[in-house]
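Complex 763.
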Amino acid sequence: MTIAEPAPADTAAATRTAYRTCPLCEASCGLEITLRPAQRGGEEVVRIRGDRDDVFSKGYICPKGSTLKQLHEDPDRLRRPLVKRDGEFVEVTWDEAFAEIEARLLPVLEEHGREAAAVYIGNPNAHNLAGMLYGRPVLRALGTPNVFSASTVDQRPKEISSALMFGGGLNVPVPDVDRTDHLLMLGANPFASNGSLATAPDWPGRLERLVERGGTLVVVDPRRSRTAEMASEWVPIRPGADAYLLMAMAQVLISEDLVDLGTSTDLVTGLDELVELAAPFTPEAVAHATGLEADHIRRLARDLAAADTACVYGRIGTTTAEFGTLTSWLVDVLNVLTGNLDRPGGAMFTTPASGGSNTRGKPRYGREVKLHRRRSRVRELPETFGELPAVVMAEEMDTPGQGQIRALVTIAGNPVLSTPNSGRLDAALAQLDCMVSVDIYVNETTRHADVILPAPSALQKGHYDLALLQLALRNTANYSEPVLPLEEDQPDEWEVLARLALVLQGAGATADPALVDDLMITALVQAAVGDDTSAVHGRDVDEILGLLAPRTGPERILDLQLRTGPYGEGFGADPEGLSLDKLLENPHGVDFGALKPRLPDVLRTPDGMIALAPEILVADVARLWDGLDGRREHPFVLIGRRDLRSNNSWMHNVSVLVKGKPRCTAHLNPEDAARLGVADGQEVVVRSRVGEVRIPAEVTDAIRTGVVSIPHGWGHDVDGVQMDVARANAGVNSNLLADETLFDPISGNAVLNGIPVTIERAG
Ligand code: SF4
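Predicted structure with iron/sulfur cluster bound:
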């Protein structure tokens, strides 16, 4: 994929080139954006292509990257706040919008208490500097225990296993793809997704180079994805059975004396317990559950152990499963057992420039991870990291009683398309007393809102990947300035969120968002000055605040984090060190090189060790064992699918990304199709306990028998959605089938990989 087409002729009048990191997926590619004067005044984007000088992406870009122009210019993208009056949205001023929130939302909270409110944080916030920083004041101001996010339909199991083993939810070892000899990948399809929880542009190229240099790529997936197509080996496992495979591989390593802990040797606890836990999970014991021959499992384990360097990497198929947290844990157990944790070519820790949970505080010193501190009201599902699982959101809204959710704030989220039993959630949202959304579209979720506050477009805001660079396959840093200015009277995103926080805490609709901003930076500087591991320990708070002036907003906080981060200039301690000014001087980013071994200092567990047998996971292994006997056979199980041209529902409103052959189809194996009497392209009805969809079948041998695959994020043809292109290419909502009673009990994460369904030919 591409560096880019030749410049169109009309770039002749171009006046300026800007550089910006793409925020549309986790790969964080650098973009080169050409602008020219626009006839109506200001500037317009002429072309977007890969930035060949970007230190990380080196010109790579996927088809989505260039569509920042279309997203910016999309007539459906909201520019002004909307308020619903008599069932219709009308445009209002910003002052009117905040006054409306004050008038509609606060009375609900006053009458029913703060526990009657909820907030849902969508995935785009993880790619967004202001969203990452100023969402927190909104949560604090709302003061509700009902906090939900996309993390519990996506990655919470990995965050938990990393926190338990290494002492930080984002202290996730990432696969050193560029140097490994052997990559065992489960439930991931980076040819379509461009990687996840492992940030790197051009995953496809990195994998191709791995194979070209004689390395081995083994892809474990029920579907022969594009990644599996190019892999050295495709292992067509049964959906949801990864934990069995990984546990059996651990058993083989242990029983065949192939364990070599390498640099972790003196740093692990729980090895004896792990040996005991793995013992019964022989390849023979798990063969039926995984759908794999015992000898095959043995060979996979031996190959992993024999490779000079190797890493195991699991992604969404492993976390959206009934044993999601166990699977995430076992991925890193195998990395440890084979001595591949924290060595080049293995699974390595990052050193993020803006700091993170593995750089802050004292090395080898952390606090105990406290999970399940409270439970949801209706089903008593557990909290993790301050959030309740998204699978309880609808029932918390539609079940009467003390604490029933009556008001909702969503920030860049579309849970009607992205969370289980979305039919029930959709109905529950319609019953709310008040809903406020920060969003750029009237979509399937925000159509229920009373007030919608639109953030600026991606081209109008500054960008730094605070979260994703904590997971990057190289240590890099890159800040992007806004490419286009805000429109007249348009507030910046941080101002929208800060002002919303002020309204929610009762400071009034006209309160100045700078109040929140100043409080935040002061608190952060005070914390840094009081931290004896910080570069500014003991310095005067006002002095540091003075050195950060005159910046405000997210850039001021980012500057503090960079200057006190691992490469930071320390407010004068190292004049060559990193700061926001230095990033501004380097618009293609700064490369700090390949990942470096960081054990033991990277650990933030209470005892400074790698926990191989955390208590809560050990206790869950009994469920894994019981599952071997109790595994029910279903006519079909449903799994998801990613497409290169899609990441979230915004992209379905971009013509170039949805044109051509419909992508929202049900993949069916030819044997299954023949048994059902279904021909390619014919419609089928797929039913689960909670709903049904009618969808064209795509018959392909790229999927196991007994498995059906439908991509998520579609289903745009519902009343009130104001996304014309998406409505014309509607597809079906796969989350109408996802069952909210299926979840991983440790993380509360939704099961989206392996939902029991039936299929019949549509009449
Ligand atoms: S791979 Fe991701 S970050 Fe790169 S251009 Fe595509 S959408 Fe943007």
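The longest strand covers residues 30-37.
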